[in-house]
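Possible regression after last week's pipeline update?

I re-ran a chain I had predicted before the update to compare outputs. Posting the input and the new output here so someone can diff against the archived version. Not blocking, just want to make sure nothing changed silently.
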Amino acid sequence: MNLSHNSPSIFNDKNRVWFGLMIGNSRLHWAEFEASKMLKTWDTEHSAFEENRDVFLSSVPIKLASVVPEQTKIWQQHPNVEVISLEQLPLKNLYSTLGIDRALAVLGAGTKLGFPVLVIDAGTALTFTGCDRDRGLVGGAILPGLGLQFSALAEKTAALPLANFPQHLPQRWAIETPGAIHSGIIYTLLAGIRDFIEVWCQDFPESQIVLTGGDAQILMTYLEAKFQSIYAKITLVPEVIFWGISAIAL
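New output (post-update):
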């Protein structure tokens, strides 16, 4: 059965274990909770049923958010799943096509760290989502993420290779092709992140800035090397979406 959001008692038992599941474009993101306490997080592949068999066959409640409808249908077969919708989130000015992942992340960041808040999610897509001090959505932006930019060049050109992420900030003026790809993508992306943060902080100088997503750590490495003042403003929070799920679960 699907749980109605009008019947949350299955989640607020102080000894009750439940799972948060965020279905992203690339992976399944999991968190295990005991009431409001987050016990652990982990990721699995969409297709890795064996990795998820114990969860799928259990009766442990799941709070599910998803940006992949086909995967949502699979997990709705679980006996105690509740699919989170935008209407459940205590935020203002949300629009109907806003990604639930973006909305939960900004809710979680604001609830834990305070509003106003800007969340940068460095996943398959790189997104910016901002809320003001009254929990009103100000807006945001979406662009291809770091990995998608690298793969797009390799897939859509005849001669350019698939370049791996460099572990450190590359030199700007490259003298070989992989290095030129590194430079073009990374320096442009960092400049864009700096610009969005600076403009946001002009309007909301007291705002929290949160970075999350699968590429967040490597972006923090690049930002630390290139833009120290921007790096210093950012809080790295890998689990921020689960802060949002927890905020409406109990």
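Follow-up from reviewer: compared with the archived run. The first strand starts at residue 17 and ends at 23. Marking as no regression found.
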